[in-house]
Write a structure and sequence with these properties.
By secondary structure, this protein is α/β, with parallel strands linked by helices. The chain has helices at about 50-60, 75-80, 95-110, 140-150, 160-165, 180-190, 225-235; strands at about 5, 25, 40-45, 65-70, 85-90, 115-120, 120-125, 130, 135, 160, 200, 205-210.
C-alpha cells in the first residue's frame, strides 16, 4: 500500500487532495516527527508566502520528499524544483493529477535506495551523510562513500584495493595512505555518536562493518529534525509532539 504524509495547519487533507480515497495510507509521522518518514510528504502551503515556502523546502533539503501545493507563481515553482522539491503545484491541482505525481515520486524512491539503516545509524544517499536520531555526523563525501560501500555487504570484508576502485575510482594503488586517513576520520565521527567499533579492520588488509546489533541499544524515541523544527515554528506541529 502506498503511503503519504500530510503537512498543513489541519491534520486531515481536504477531500480534493486526500489520497486515502484512492487507497493510500496516511502517515502522521513517528510520535509526530517527520524525521524518519520515508515517503512523499504533501504540503498545503497556500497560506504561506514565498519566503516561508522556500524556508520549508530548505528545512528538508534536498527536499526529495516534498510536494508543495498552493504555489501559484510559475517562477517560484521552477525555483522550488531547482533546489530539489519533488513537486511544486498550484492549488487548482486535482486529486487525479496529485496522485499521478505522488506515484512518480514514490516510484523514484523505489528505483534508488535513498536510505540504509546500520543499527542506530541512518545513511542518507541524497544528503550524503549519516544520522543518529536527529544528529547528522557531518561526513565528508568520501567518508560517506566508504561507509555506504561497506554497507553494501555488512560484515563482509572489503579489501583496500576494492575500496580504491569503488570509492576513489582509481585503477592503481596511490602512493598515499588516503584510505587509512579517511577511515580514521570516519571512525572518529562514528565514535562521537557512540558507534565506535562499527568499522573493523580485517587481517587481510581491508575493512568490514561490525554486526550492527549492539549499536541498536538505547532510546528509540524519535527526535525532531530541521523540518520538524520548522513546522513547530509555523505552529503546524504541537511543541509537545
Amino acid at each position: 500500500m502506498a503511503c503519504f504524509g500530510w503537512i498543513a495547519k489541519g491534520d486531515v487533507p481536504p477531500s480534493h487532495w486526500d489520497l486515502r480515497a484512492n487507497g493510500w495510507a496516511l502517515c502522521r509521522g513517528k510520535c509526530g516527527c517527520r524525521a524518519e518518514c520515508r515517503h512523499v510528504l504533501i504540503c498545503d502551503t497556500g497560506d504561506l508566502d514565498a519566503a516561508a515556502r522556500l524556508a520549508l523546502a530548505e528545512a528538508d533539503r534536498p527536499a526529495w520528499r516534498l510536494i508543495l501545493l498552493g504555489v501559484e507563481d510559475p517562477a517560484e515553482r521552477a525555483h522550488l524544483l531547482s533546489i530539489g522539491c519533488a513537486e511544486a503545484l498550484s492549488a487548482a491541482t486535482g486529486l487525479h493529477e496529485l496522485e499521478a505525481r505522488a506515484l512518480r515520486v514514490t516510484e523514484m524512491f523505489g528505483m534508488l535506495p535513498r536510505w540504509r539503516d546500520i543499527g542506530a545509524l541512518t545513511l542518507d544517499l541524497f544528503h550524503r551523510d549519516a544520522r543518529k536520531g536527529a544528529r547528522w555526523l557531518g561526513l565528508h563525501p568520501r567518508e560517506f562513500s566508504l561507509l555506504w560501500r561497506l554497507a553494501d555487504s555488512p560484515g563482509v570484508p572489503v579489501s583496500r584495493r576494492q575500496l580504491i576502485t569503488d570509492v576513489w575510482r582509481l585503477n592503481h594503488e596511490p602512493e598515499t595512505n588516503s584510505v587509512e586517513v579517511h577511515v580514521s576520520r570516519l571512525r572518529s565521527k562514528l565514535a562521537d555518536v557512540g558507534c565506535e567499533g562499527l568499522v573493523k579492520t580485517v587481517p587481510e588488509g581491508g575493512y568490514r562493518l561490525a554486526d550492527p546489533r549492539p549499536f541498536m541499544l538505547g532510546s528509540t524515541q524519535p527526535q525532531a529534525d530541521a523540518l520538524d523544527e520548522y513546522l513547530r515554528q509555523l505552529g503546524w506541529v504541537s511543541q509537545d509532539a
